[in-house]
Design a protein that fits this description.
heterodimer; A: about 575 residues; alpha/beta; Glutaredoxin; Rossmann fold; Ubiquitin-like (UB roll); five-stranded mixed beta sheet; B: about 250 residues; alpha+beta; 2 domains; three-stranded antiparallel beta sheet
């Protein structure tokens, strides 16, 4: 069916609503990377077998990640007229009793984490009601909206994650998907769209925090026949998989954002650049593109507005540096993924020398919500200069590694204690790194800092991609700096001297310190090399490479000196 | 169109389409470079040509070889910061290639004596000029960068032999480290299980495993070695169409 008007869109929406709140039981199984790692595939097939065996009329739907990664595999049950139930740590052994309970209409309590009576749809402010009343047997089950895990969260980017079938455009529409696109195309001029994005103060979520509205405006005003909009899905930070999870949970929200961006900038072509070796994400995105094209939401005359836009999915050959804008564009053009000097901005000369606008997954996902609810609503969330929310992938020394979305301004400590369940018993918080390899490491004393572009920058760190790694006393700071340099040495493209030779030498010096052959002069040598790299490298990979070394030298200098003078590793990590 | 900028405290005029390096050289200011060539577009690989630019009260370090001149720009070519960066870069290069003449000379000039790192003995400094001249000026695209990071090197495609090499020797002449070797031979041959196959007079470029048979002159018919295109390159002129087809004597 081609969607040409609001009526067609509503038809699609109703189809989706019938799936989300069906007359029979709907069972949702999380199938994001975190769930697959915990055996969700087995849970899905066992559930199907058990449903057949007990001949229960139910639809089984694979969904994305709801963020409770520590309790995967997750199963959610929606029974008509009853609250939605969330089960955690489901195993093949617990499934028969779970299905039996559903067949009897009396859900089991084992592994039951939360119930949800109603939830707010962040995209339009309306409420989706599962059940008006709580049945007496479920009164003791905690309500999700009041739970410590969900209370501090505002899920704008992750609004559909784990709640819909990522391959179903109908379910996306049921939660008011593509309504923002309809609004933008039929009721707003491109300038008005840019104006709303500018007023919302949305800043690029890729790490730099550049104002998105300004970026779009520059690209719109740049001279050029052809313009391009790109989505950066090249996520390479070690230990972080938030974009992967987001793509696998809700690919249509990326597409919707990208189409709105294309309309605002005046581009007719969009590209999504994906990291190599990401088969599930690639599959989900391609399905989303195909479905959107089949429905007429991509292609010519979108929603009857006369606007034409196509999206192509491109897979890079891999490489951390391909997340850098110019290297990404070189890779898209089919050349080696090497950065080029950016003295002429990519908004003027980017992909194939045409004006190009690049934003990352998270930024694009924010766009439909901003268009739908307006700039003033978005600007109310967050701090003075950092608006909206930030997706945080929490890992390391915490009890509950998870994927959460918090308003800007949330203190790091709150994320660790409330959402992450604190550091494991018996150990103590030592350091936090928020933004991946380019971000400095912060000591525990700075855990009161808020999630905020400028606050973290002035503290010598970066918000970056939002991959938050918590370290306890078993982590050696010299060793962690060495680890990040080893990673960056491997990922450097090798084009410019400071990055290629400098990172290698800095790593050598750090290796010397961890092997107790370091000297005190090594610290000043490290600082000297850091200055050279930060100022003279060609791209941001080299420029930000010394961040972990400089920040650990600043906050944990004693630890370096203990390694050098006493030949002892306080964390007992380095083999001296 | 001309723009006015300040170079080391002196107001100068420069064409809008030139770079800081070009403007500075015109004024006789010496900025060290390893990967820049007047006949080619800038690469920005060696980073030795860094300068400090100030605009609207903000100072930043940029590479002068590819930074376009701007109206009202203030450029400092040898501040303390810049000298420190250049010293570190040349020290890193001197540790990589201690036996390359030009690196040693620049290190001596900058007062870098013994690098504080473990010495290696790479002959190539990875400036990229050979790859650049081959693809941009000659258009042969015979050689390329292989691998990445510290494993990066210039090589023939797939580390085999440069099949697209035309044997012009531009790479040999442009290499600042003089690490590419070339040889003309009157009788080149291939040895295979079938026996020796004669090629006749040919040019060998050892680094790329290239063996290019001399072409017969379209005028006199005698085979001749490919002529050097560097004279044209330095003047910034394109090569004549029949450049590689007519021998010196007939030209």
């Amino acid at each position: 069916m081609k969607v040409k008007s609001i009526r067609d869109l509503n038809k699609l929406k109703r189809e989706g609503e019938n799936r989300l709140l069906p007359r029979c039981v709907r069972i949702q199984v999380g199938m994001a990377p975190c769930a697959l790692a915990k055996g969700a595939k087995g849970v899905l097939s066992t559930l199907q077998k058990e449903l057949d065996k007990q001949s229960l009329d139910a639809t089984l739907v694979p969904v994305g990640c709801i963020g409770i990664c520590y309790a995967e595999p997750l199963v959610e049950v929606i029974m008509p007229g009853k609250p939605k139930l969330t089960y955690g740590k489901v195993t093949a052994e617990t499934i028969p009793s779970l299905v039996k309970g559903l067949a009897k209409g009396k859900p089991v309590k084992k592994n039951l984490l939360y119930r949800t009576n109603a939830e707010e749809l962040i995209i339009n402010g309306k409420t989706l009601t599962y059940a008006a009343k709580t049945p007496s047997d479920l009164k003791k089950t905690p309500a999700a909206q009041d739970a410590a895990f969900f209370l501090p969260q505002v899920r704008i980017t992750l609004r559909n994650a784990g709640l819909i079938d990522p391959e179903s455009i109908e379910e996306y529409c049921a939660r008011d998907g593509y309504a923002a696109l309809h609004k933008a195309l039929t009721k707003m001029t491109p300038e008005q769209v840019i104006d709303v994005v500018t007023k919302s103060n949305l800043r690029g979520r890729g790490g730099g925090g550049f104002p998105t509205g300004l970026k779009w405006k520059t690209c719109r005003e740049a001279k050029g026949k052809k313009k391009y909009v790109l989505c950066n899905c090249s996520e390479g930070d070690p230990g972080i998989g938030m974009h992967k999870s987001l793509i696998e949970s809700d690919p249509h929200s990326i597409l919707e954002g990208l189409i709105i961006g294309g309309y605002a900038i005046g581009a007719r072509e969009g590209y999504i650049y994906l990291h190599h070796g990401n088969a599930p994400a690639k599959e989900k995105l391609q399905t989303a593109i195909d479905r959107a094209t089949a429905c007429g939401l991509l292609g010519t005359d979108i929603l009857g507005s006369g606007f034409t836009f196509t999206v192509t999915l491109k897979e890079g050959a891999g490489g951390y540096v391909c997340g850098e804008s110019t290297a990404l564009m070189a890779s898209l053009e089919g050349r080696a993924g090497e950065p080029r000097p950016k003295y002429i901005h990519t908004a003027e000369k980017g992909l194939w020398e045409s004006p190009t606008n690049l934003n990352n997954v998270e930024t694009w996902c924010n766009v439909p919500a901003i268009i739908s609810r307006g700039a003033a609503w978005y600007a109310k969330i967050g701090t003075e200069k950092s608006k909206g929310t930030k997706v945080i992938s929490l890992s390391g020394a915490v009890n509950r590694p998870c994927l959460v979305e918090v308003p800007m301004g949330t203190p790091l400590k709150k994320i660790i204690t409330t959402l992450g369940g604190g550091v494991p018993r018996g150990s103590k918080l030592k350091a936090i790194q928020v933004g991946g390899p380019p971000a400095g490491i912060l000591p525990a004393a700075m855990a009161d800092l808020p999630i905020d572009f400028d606050a973290l920058y002035s503290a010598g760190s970066l918000l970056g991609s939002g991959g938050m790694i918590v370290m306890d006393e078993t982590t050696c700071m010299v060793d962690i700096a060495r680890y990040f340099l080893t990673f960056l040495e491997d990922e450097s493209c090798g084009r410019c001297v400071p990055c290629r030779e400098g990172i290698k030498r800095m790593k050598e010096v750090l290796e010397g310190i961890t092997k107790a052959i370091g000297k005190e002069e090594d610290l000043s040598l490290l600082e000297e090399l850091s200055r050279c790299l930060a100022q003279a490298s060609l791209c941001d990979l080299g420029k930000s490479a010394p961040a972990t070394v400089l920040s650990t030298l600043r906050h944990f200098r004693d630890e370096y000196l203990t390694h050098i003078n006493q030949e002892v590793c306080p964390a007992k990590r380095c083999t001296m | 169109m001309m723009v006015t900028l300040t170079l080391d405290g002196k107001k100068v005029e420069a064409d809008r389409h030139t770079t800081i390096l070009q403007a500075a050289r015109k004024e006789g200011i010496v900025i060290p470079t390893l990967c820049s060539h007047e006949g080619l577009s800038p690469l920005g690989n060696c980073r030795l040509c860094v300068v400090e630019v100030a605009k609207n009260g903000r100072t930043k370090v940029v590479t002068s070889c590819n930074y376009p001149v701007e109206e009202g720009l203030t450029v400092t070519t040898a501040s303390e910061t810049i000298i420190a960066i250049r010293k570190t870069i040349i020290e890193l290069l001197a540790a990589r290639s201690p036996n390359v003449k030009i690196v040693r000379e620049l290190a001596d000039q900058m007062g870098v004596t013994i690098p504080r790192f473990t010495l290696e003995n790479e002959k190539c400094i990875l400036c990229g000029l050979c790859v650049h001249v081959c693809s941009e000026y000659i258009g042969a695209h015979a050689i390329t960068f292989s691998s990445h990071g510290t494993g990066k090197e210039v090589a023939a495609p797939l580390y085999r032999s440069a099949k697209d090499c035309i044997g012009c020797g531009a790479c040999v002449e442009i290499c600042p480290a003089q690490c590419i070797t070339m040889q003309d031979t009157k009788e080149a041959g291939t040895y295979s299980p079938r026996g020796k196959e004669d090629v006749g007079p040919a040019r060998l470029i050892h680094n790329w495993n290239a063996r290019v048979a001399w072409k017969a002159c379209t005028t006199c018919g005698n085979p001749f070695p490919p002529p050097s295109p560097v004279a044209y390159l330095e003047k910034g002129q394109p090569l004549p169409k029949d450049f590689f087809h007519i021998c010196e004597t007939c030209r």
